[in-house]
Design brief:
CATH class of the largest domain: Mainly Alpha
Distance between the termini: 49 Å
Number of domains: 3
Number of strands: 3
Helix content: 55-70%
Strand order of the largest sheet: 2-1-3
Largest sheet: 3 strands, antiparallel
CATH superfamily of the largest domain: MetI-like
Length: 417
């Protein structure tokens, strides 16, 4: 009896230790998740605080006369300079005028040109319009330039501060929503730079990537999983596919440079080539995900199809593939999201070029959003630092959206057996 109780006590003590270990393991997992979420929140908060200023841009209200002669000469910036001189008539010295003109962006003339293009009746009229200020004034209005610093260590001089204070006193300068950030393309001037050109290049590249990688990846997975004989050749192919999924992305860029550009002589810095390179990089991920989705379909589905006289192709196309398609789409979207964030392979094929125009086709010169972020991060101006962080927020938002779509598709079409 004593031995029996002793054995029972030992079993209870062992179970108690096991439950405690299981509880500790669960707490370790929760702590790890909490730490990961904390680091992610800190990172996104730091990027958000740094980039939120890019969604606003300083504008100045000027009384502008649309001079007929200047319009005919296509000298729109001269109209801006004339308005500045009329606003500050006491500025007469040449050096002071140059400092005065620096308060406005070099793109202010393009704003006037766009207004006149939309309304040609403005010729000869005088209107009060809001025009874009320079990046230094923008940084000053956002508090990034400290007024208390001595003039020699400040990018804005005391005289320029006095002009800005005059605008502030007359409510002629304010921060407005920066639509140009979403509708413009790259520029040497931070206040004129936007992400639409890079975003369009990314969408065109992803379109080419999807059109190539999705059908090829799905057909490859179907062949390997449903039709290919199990021998050493198919084993070799499977090993190579798994290895390609772990190859660094820059290797695919080197492959694209050697084959698509140097051999086939395709256009450099084009979304067509970028999409082909991204397709090569995404194919292994899609094939692996598609094969896993096919294996998840119960064998009873195939057996039932064979039982009613369906052929092998009919079984796969009409019964197995529809059930596996949600998992295939999920893997494809995740692979596309990975391709969207890649910059190394695109750098190798020349999509790092300075592109001002928004691409209109798959062969036009273009860049991509991750490459645009890389270019802006390398710029010394403080305003580009804001736009770098803002572009990162846009990219992260797009990636989250794509992954959310993948989760929704999986939940909507998933079958539980």
């Amino acid at each position: 009896m004593t031995n029996t109780l002793s054995k029972s006590d030992r079993i209870k003590a062992g179970l108690t230790r096991r439950y405690r270990a299981e509880k500790r393991f669960r707490l370790y997992g929760i702590a790890a998740i909490a730490i990961a979420i904390t680091f992610l929140a800190v990172m996104l908060t730091a990027i958000g605080v740094r980039g939120v200023g890019a969604f606003q841009q300083t504008h100045v209200s000027l009384s502008v006369t649309f001079d007929e002669q200047m319009i005919q000469d296509n000298n729109w910036q001269a109209i801006v300079k004339k308005s500045m001189r009329e606003t500050f008539p006491d500025v007469t010295a040449r050096k002071a005028k140059r400092s005065l003109y620096k308060l406005m962006s070099s793109g202010a003339g393009y704003d006037l040109q766009a207004m006149y293009r939309d309304d040609p009746t403005l010729m000869g009229q005088t209107r009060q319009v809001w025009l874009t200020a320079s990046d230094d004034i923008d940084m000053l209005m956002k508090g990034a330039i400290d007024r208390s610093v001595v003039e020699d260590d400040r990018r804005v001089t005391d005289r320029e501060l006095a002009w800005v204070d005059y605008w502030i006193a007359n409510d002629a300068i304010e921060l407005q929503f920066n639509w140009r950030f979403f509708t413009g393309s790259d520029s040497r001037e931070p206040e004129l730079a936007g992400i639409l050109g890079a975003f369009t290049g990314s969408l065109l590249s992803l379109t080419v990537c999807f059109l190539l990688s999705f059908p090829i990846g799905i057909m490859t997975a179907i062949y390997l999983e449903e039709f290919a004989p199990k021998n050493r050749w198919t084993d070799l192919i499977e090993v190579n596919i798994n290895n390609l999924a772990a190859v660094p992305s820059i290797v695919f860029g080197l492959l694209g440079l050697a084959v698509f550009l140097n051999f086939f002589m395709l256009p450099r810095s084009a979304p067509l080539v970028g999409g082909m390179v991204l397709a090569l990089m995404t194919l292994p991920t899609i094939i692996i995900a598609a094969r896993a989705a096919l294996r998840a379909v119960p064998p009873s589905i195939r057996e039932a199809a064979f039982g009613i006289g369906a052929s092998k192709i009919q079984t796969v196309v009409h019964h197995v593939l529809p059930l596996a398609m949600p998992g295939m789409l999920t893997g494809t979207i995740i692979g596309m999201a990975q391709a969207l964030g890649e910059s190394a392979p695109l750098l190798m094929i020349g999509m790092v070029a300075f592109i001002v125009d928004i691409p209109g086709s798959f062969t036009d010169p273009a860049t991509a959003l991750p490459v645009q972020i890389y270019l802006w991060a390398d710029s010394p101006e403080r305003a580009f630092s804001e736009r770098t962080a803002a572009a990162i927020l846009v990219l992260v938002g797009f990636l989250i959206t794509m992954n959310l779509v993948a989760v929704i598709l999986r939940k909507k079409f998933e079958r539980r057996w």
